[in-house]
């Protein structure tokens, strides 16, 4: 008798069983009324009422329930963006002018000409190229943010620094093989027969090593130093140029090709 009572209790249906039956009938494409009628025919009065039956169907997850970024953890966002998708935030590059397709094609053609003429930089004629440029040398050139960087331990306050402007006192420095003076320019340079220079595509950057190597590198070395006169600043500029090792010069010229 005890065993029979145990089997009866074991076969009693609970709420989860009813939900499983409702789900099974729903997958069979039966309507709500058909599902309820089948339950009534099987369990009779033990079947859930109409409201309970409707509630079981209405609380199922919706197919198109959108998940917004507000319910995703920050670590999950970082993982999805950087590890899974491989994206990173990048600052837009500032361009002085938006080139047209014709200007882009002209720049490519212009760059291809010296490469073909100099065998992609392997020709010895590369060493015959003499470039020159000029730049203002100030008596005081402030340090950039990278030069002002210092090591700070955890808990220490970040150091502050007053922004200084360039000094008004300055002098033009030119990097040529010889010093360009008025006498040399009028008596030697102008009487010589002129050769047509190479054309330069519009809105293109300077390709002279002095523009992208010499001047920025020397000015970084002179940053933070204060000179008493423009002549002293130019002398420091000359000494800094002479102190540059040969391997850095070679690398700068090799980067052109």
UniProtKB/TrEMBL annotation:
Coiled coil: none
Matches recorded under Pfam families: HTH_48 (PF17906)
Residue ranges of every copy of the Mos1 transposase HTH domain listed in the record: 15-56
InterPro entries, alphabetized: Mos1_HTH, RNaseH_sf, Transposase-MT_Hybrid
GO terms, molecular function: nucleic acid binding
Protein's name in the database: Mos1 transposase HTH domain-containing protein
Source organism: Acanthoscelides obtectus
Lineage, uppermost ranks: Eukaryota, Metazoa, Ecdysozoa, Arthropoda, Hexapoda
């Amino acid at each position: 008798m005890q065993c029979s009572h145990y089997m009866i209790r074991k076969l009693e249906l609970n709420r989860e069983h009813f939900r499983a039956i409702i789900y099974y009938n729903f997958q069979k494409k039966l309507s709500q009324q058909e599902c309820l009628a089948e339950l009534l025919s099987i369990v009779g009065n033990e079947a859930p009422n109409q409201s309970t039956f409707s509630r079981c169907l209405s609380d199922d997850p919706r197919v198109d329930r959108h998940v917004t970024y507000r319910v995703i953890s920050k670590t999950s966002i970082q993982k999805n963006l950087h590890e899974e998708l491989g994206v990173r935030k990048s600052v837009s590059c500032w361009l002085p002018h938006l080139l047209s397709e014709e200007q882009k094609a002209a720049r490519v053609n212009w760059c291809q000409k010296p490469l073909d003429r100099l065998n992609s930089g392997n020709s010895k004629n590369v060493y015959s190229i003499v470039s020159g440029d000029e730049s203002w040398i100030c008596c005081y050139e402030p340090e950039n943010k990278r030069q002002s960087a210092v090591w700070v331990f955890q808990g220490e306050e970040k150091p502050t620094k007053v922004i200084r402007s360039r000094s008004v006192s300055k002098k033009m420095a030119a990097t040529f093989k010889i010093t360009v003076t008025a006498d040399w320019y009028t008596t030697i340079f102008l009487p010589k027969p002129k050769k047509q220079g190479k054309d330069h595509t519009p809105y293109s950057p300077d390709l002279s090593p002095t523009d992208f190597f010499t001047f920025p590198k020397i000015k970084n070395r002179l940053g933070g130093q204060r000179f008493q006169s423009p002549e002293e600043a130019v002398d420091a500029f000359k000494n800094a140029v002479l102190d540059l090792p040969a391997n850095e010069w070679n690398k700068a010229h090799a980067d052109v090709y």
